[in-house]
Amino acid sequence: MKRTFSTLCLSAMLLWTGVTAVSLSVLPRTSFAAPALNFQNILQQERTWAGLHTKKLKVQDITWTYSEGGSSAKPTLLLIHGLSGTRDNWNRMARYLTPYYHVVIPDLPVHGETSVPENFDLSIPNLTEKIRRFVEAGQFDHQLHIAGHSMGGAIAMLYTAQYPINTHSLLLIDSAGVFKSANTPYLKDPALLKDLVISKTGDFDKLIHLATASAPFIPNEIKVEQEKMMISQSKNTQKMVDQLVLMSKTYTPDSFALAARSIDVPTLIIWGKQDKIINVEVAQELKSLFKNAQPPILLEGVGHMPILEAEQLTVQPYLEFLKTK
């Protein structure tokens, strides 16, 4: 009964402070002639470099697009991106994971290339339930480890709480939630998240500077195409922000804490110390809520996007963590 209550609490309460996980993926840090390649070719080259292949899977009314790499005989890592991001946010990390693990990275509904019906329910509980159906249909639950960045961390936490027997570990990177120690504007007033939606030319540059401690170089040809893609998805992104704002008005840090304490799988927390969207104090608060969490790893000079700003500093402790699971 205690497990059932905790699970229901989490599915109702968890983490309604979503944040933007802007897709900044570019090719490995080598020179290339950007004008000679279109945006999709560049992304495909990056996936190949990371040992990933693009696949599709229809489950009920969702046609999932996802990246998959590594041997399916090995433990599975399910990596979940954040609000307005895509599976390609994880490519730099995946390069170091596919030699040792079976890596699966879906585009969330209304993100990237995953397609859903009109008026799809974009609430975190529904997204989590749909991820579970995706895992079952793809038979990806072999020794499953789950990781989430930003809003993807909210989904990963909820998934872990609802399916603890099938989840071997949890990785949270600058994760969304409802926190007491929130000192950033976007946690104090989630309505400000509306300002982060990429809806017009120029918004992408603003978001890069907000989401990273030191904005990475992105060739202009790539940046223009990335911005166009995000503008085309802005209507659905706005719908997700509306859901997050609505729920943040309903639930409190205390109810979040009560729910999060039901999670007892081994947990690793990684945070950028210069995160301007979800302040670094949250990492220690999260650690105190979980029954089996290691001390948080805080990355100096890194903002909200460790998976892109400092992928090696992020993946190395994760690999060490996974060795013991």
Automatic annotation (TrEMBL):
Signal peptide: 1-21
Protein name as catalogued: Alpha/beta fold hydrolase
Pfam families from the UniProt entry: Abhydrolase_1 (PF00561)
Gene3D superfamilies noted in UniProt: alpha/beta hydrolase
Keyword Chloroplast attributed: no
Origin: domain of life: Bacteria
Keyword annotations of the record: Hydrolase, Signal
GO cellular component, one term: membrane
Entries under InterPro entries matching the protein: AB_hydrolase_1, AB_hydrolase_fold, AB_hydrolase_sf
Organism of provenance: Acinetobacter albensis
Transcription listed as a keyword: no
Domain AB hydrolase-1 as annotated: residue spans: 75-310
GO molecular function ontology, one term from the record: hydrolase activity
